[in-house]
Amino acid sequence: MRLLPYSGYAEMRWKNGQGVTREVCRFPASEQYDWRISVATIREDGAFSCFSGYLRSISVLEGEGMFLTIDDQRSALIPPFQATDFNGDSQVFCEVVGGPLLDFNVIYRRETTQATVCWERDGTWQHQQGTMLLFNAGNRLDVIVGGECHTLHHYDSLLIDNPAMVTVNAGSDTLFACVTLTSVNTG
C-alpha cells in the first residue's frame, strides 16, 4: 500500500507534444507499462495521442466537459466525473467546453490488464485481488484499509495491492475515483 501525494506526481510532455500530464502511477515503472494513471490539462481543442495496444478511460475533473470524436463518431457532452472508455488505437479529437479542463486518465494494455473506473462518494468493500487505486477529487478523504486510517488531500491517491477491507468516508461534496486493475489470464 502506498500513499501517492499530488505534489509527487511526475510531470511529462504528451506523446504528441501538445500538452503536459502529471503521472499518478504506472506499472511496471518502465516505458512498456501494463497500466498508467495520470491527470492532464487540456487547454484547447485537439487530437489525442495514439496509444496502440492500449485501452483508455478518461473523466473530466475540472471544467464544464468535453466532446470526443472517436473514429469519426462524435459523443454526447461528457460532463465531469463520467468515465468514458475508448480504444487507444482510435483517432480521437477533443472539443473542450467552456475553457480549459483537467482530466483523469487510465491507460492499460488490453493483453495484460482489465480496468474499471467508478466515481463514488463513500463505501465499504472487500478488495480481493489485483490493484486498487483511490483518487480523491475532493478536499479530504478518509480511507480505512485493514484497520489502518489514511487521509487523502485534494488529488492525492492511495494504491492498494493486497487483499483488505476498505472503507471510505467522504464529505457530501467529495467524490473519488475507485480504479481497479486486474491481470488478464493469458492461459
From TrEMBL:
Top-level taxonomy: Bacteria, Pseudomonadati, Pseudomonadota, Gammaproteobacteria, Enterobacterales
Pfam families: HutD
Name by which UniProt lists this protein: HutD family protein
Record InterPro entries: RmlC-like_jellyroll (IPR014710), RmlC_Cupin_sf (IPR011051), Uncharacterised_HutD/Ves (IPR010282)
Species this protein is from: Kosakonia sacchari
